[in-house]
Design goal:
97 residues, alpha/beta, 4-stranded parallel sheet, 33% helix, globular
Length: 97
Amino acid sequence: MLSNMGFTGGGCVVISGAGSRIGRVVALGAAELGIAAAVRDLDDNSAAGVAETVENSGGRALAVRVDVSDRRSQPHEIAAPVLFLLSPPASAITGTY
């Protein structure tokens, strides 16, 4: 999926709703391309499980519990340029597609 968008490796992707379904697939795809993933999900156990799977496959990941419907739970600053992705369930909550 990410390779079709022109990503070939390096950098970081921040994926909301990454604890399952499409977000999980994107996180695993990022790992295959050498892209580090911030695995964000409302369910911290799901996020941790996906991050562990990514790391076990040789990738880099960080599990982060976040509620996309609550701006206070969102990070205010990102230190480096990243790509933010919302999987469909998360984007339905925020109205972002």
